[in-house]
Amino acid sequence: MTGLIMGVLATIAIQNLGTQNKNTVQDVVPSEKQQASTSGTENDSKSRAFKKARLSQIFKYDSILDQRVVLYSTVAAAQEQDLKEWWIQSKEIERKSHRETIQNAIVRKLATINPYETLGYIDDVSNFQSDALLHSIFSEWSVSQLDEAIEASNALSYPRRKVALESILETRDDLSDSRRRAIAIQLEGEETFLKLVSDREAAQSIKVPEESWEILLNDDVDDYLQTESLAIVARAWRDQAGFKVLSNIYQMQDHRIRFDLVNAVARLDLAGALNYTRGLVEENEQQYLSTIIVREWASEDAKTVLDVLSTFEPSSLASILENEAANTWARISPLELIENVDSISEEFRLYTLETAFSELAKGDPIDAIARLSSVENLVANTSTILDGIVFRWSFREPLAAAEWVVNNYGLRDPRRRMLLERVLPRWARINPIQAFELAIAQPTANEGLGLEHLVIGEITQDGDIEIALKLLPQVTEHTRQVAYTDVGLAMVRASRTEEAVELGTDLDGEQQQWYYRRVFNSWAQTNPKSLYETLGNLATNELKSGAAMQLILSNRITPLLSDDQIDEARTMLSDEAKTTIQRIEN
Q1: Model pTM greater than 0.70?
Q2: Boundaries of every domain in the chain
């Protein structure tokens, strides 16, 4: 019956095409008369018609309506095997819109034949398309076999079950609310039903947007799930009553969606929205709303919004908004900002240029560096701008960035060290040995840390303890404390605590005290029971006292040890440690 109805519709549509298209729809779809052939040849005729309707032919017609008539009438007349063959062919269609249109039609028809098997087709498409196909399957299924569709939905993962439920509830709006709610509860999605009901009631009251607004805010559905519906109502409210709806949005309790709703309304007329905020008395409301509006406007036309802000009051807020506009401009159109930076107040130029050049460096750091000379007379110093460029460069090409720094700044130039500090951590992740060699070759100030501590710190954060251990003997004297501590802490994180304790014996004096304090503190916080069980095995009374002290202090914040265990730890404290603990506890 479906095939006959679609055939009749196709014929009517075809008769009205006239000479609109050089190729007529009859070239692709069998006519009603042809479909009415003898029953003995009916299946063969349908199959031949389907195979004749090559996928490429369907989309030869300019009109989308004509294309859909051809597609759905052909699919409606097809046998299951033909549909399966067509599905395979459809994967080869390059144009996304055509491919997805055909696949949706195929899935809809297959869902009327064997919906269980059709569910398997969902795994053939990307996650971006799967929801649409699921919706089509359960829309068809819920009409022909509602109970089976519900049962199948229940077996799906939560995200897919939610899509299936939405499809069932939207399609079967002929059912009573009590029946639809029962289905939603059965599929653990009562909120989905409540949202549909709330949206329906809000739509019925949309001529009085205030009523729709209250319906959506006071229902039993999380406002976050109704952001789209609230935006529709807010725009309708603005059309009736102007931008005062922005104040209603500001008063919402759910801060997660205020930003999106303000944007949805403000985009209708950004100049009008900003002008509305001029008259607001409450400072926090005025700043919140105007900041969002200015950010959105600056992303489209920064020059105009900056001109408008020159007359904005109060001046303190105008400065905040100018800074927001300038930085939005720098992120969206960095080159344009750089070429027009003299239109920005002097107090904001440096930070704005730092942002703009950093954005440029994402694409071409060398070009960004070359452009620095164009702004040298507009800011006091461009060193922080260069720092940002090199930092951004280091994420893409750390070796190239390091080479540029070394080639352009002498060994004693302080800018060389400053820029290498930005590059070495990223390089250490790719080639720790080369990064370490470059770091160790750089001079250090008196008693200053060598750059090698950046390399050791980075590779230990990644868990490369063995490489760090090989490099430790080469670190400079004033870097030993920091470098050894980084490795020791990495060992604690990796549960190599005995090795961490042993590593500390390579240090002396205050360096060693600092090392054990940090290691025992980390151990006490991450695995206090393990440290407690190790207390008696530590080599010296000094180590036992240091470990016990960290256990006691850590247990005050996160009590994971019993009173008896803490009392036993106290017996291992030195006199000096006991005094320190008493002072802290009292």
Answers
A1: yes
A2: 269-332, 495-585
